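Box 3.1 A note on notation
Throughout this textbook, protein chains are presented in two layers. The first layer is the amino acid sequence; the second is a token string describing backbone geometry. Keep the layers aligned when reading.
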Amino acid sequence: LENGTEYYVSFFPVTSDGAVNANDVNRGTGTPNRFIVWTAPYPTYLTYNGSEQTAEFPDYDPEKMTIGGTTSATNAGDYTATFTLKEDYQWGDGTTEAKEVTWSINKAFMTGIVSTTSLSLSYGSETKTITVTRPGNGAVSASSSDESCATVSVSDPTGESPTVTVTGKGFGKCKIDFSVVLDDNYYGFHIDSVSVVSEVADAVLNNNSWDTISKISAKNQGANYWSVGDCKSVLVKGTVGTLDINQTLWVYILGFNHNSAIEGNGITFGCFKTAQSGGVDVALVDSKYDKGYDDSSKNGTKYFTMNHWGNFNMGGWKACDLRYDILGSTNEAPINYGASKSTSNIGYDAPENTATSPVANTLMAALPADLRAVMKPITKYSNNYGCRSDIEEHVTTSIDYLPLLTEHEIFGGERVNANQYERKYQAQYTYYAAGNRKIKCGHNLLSTDVIWWCRSPIYGNNNSLFICVSEKGNSDTGLAFYSLGLSPIFLV
């Protein structure tokens, strides 16, 4: 029988004796039923693998139907196959028309490979590259967890092997995270992380933190990045003696590893200038500067005088009042502090906490905490006896954090006013050896050249004079109870 064809069936009555009565015919009609296929085949989902794949339909039975449409593909996506029933079959809904079935190739999960898992950046290797290998053409991106440590850029992000450039920006540790956006055949995701240790500095001194400057100095690489004379800003804020100040000034590099056999390695900075470039050289001055001198300069008032209770240079630099209570180069007071000096007056080396626990109302206390945190002690030779001394045994060491300069450290050459043996243990700073200006203005008297203190007492004449730099930039002398300009140094 053929499905869908109408057939006729004749029924003949039978007599009681079993004979057929052919003359008494009843005719009936009928149509035979088709076999039912309840649903179209259901596909198995495939995953992109870069090769052509054929759709899989586990329920497909070629005895009952034929398959057509798109039955194979390579790229991820949705495709349509058709199923046509053979004769004698119908769908569960009673229809016999061909049915369309969507089958899919799913996107693959991406895997990626970076050419390294860690980087170290330092002087001469401030920049390094990482190559990313990944399937597909999804755009590669990268980001730094800390751009003050290192920054990243990506070249040819959709190319076969994108390159990521990592550039060190300072001292620290960070991560570079990589990801790929989805493309036609892959899901995008985080590929990997690369750990970075950066130990580099910015070539512009002022762009670096004091912590970075200190770490570069500790690696003895300061001269690879910066030059003598380069400047960094500092906010000087507080009370210094009797001076109230809240002013941004600039410190500048005097030298690298100056006189290092005695003083140790590091970067020495001088104080101060008014601008990063082309600024005026200045010294701090207080209200007593250039106003005449009277007993108030000897009664303990903390003007910028070397000694506040008398006009004496006994004990030299190490025992003078200004070292302790104006500069804060040490936080330990000399013997007999608060009284007139004597030949036996003694000062002390600066303790290790001098910069971090400064004497109140000193220049040290007015400097920024981040700078004070990285200051290093300096071993300096000076005439620490005074009293017209010109013998070698009176040139001794002091440990300081914010000392003044000496005649020889500024001028070099033959001595003019200092103990002749100071030069044996000292060296002229590179900044001044290069011929830079020795004349300074007052920090608030920019049109006035001022006299500024050195740390050494005079070798002859009397017991009341310390060396200073004149308004014309020459070695000179000043009475201990004079209030003159301050231009100290420090080591990082």
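The chain has eight helices and 32 strands. The longest helix spans residues 210-218.
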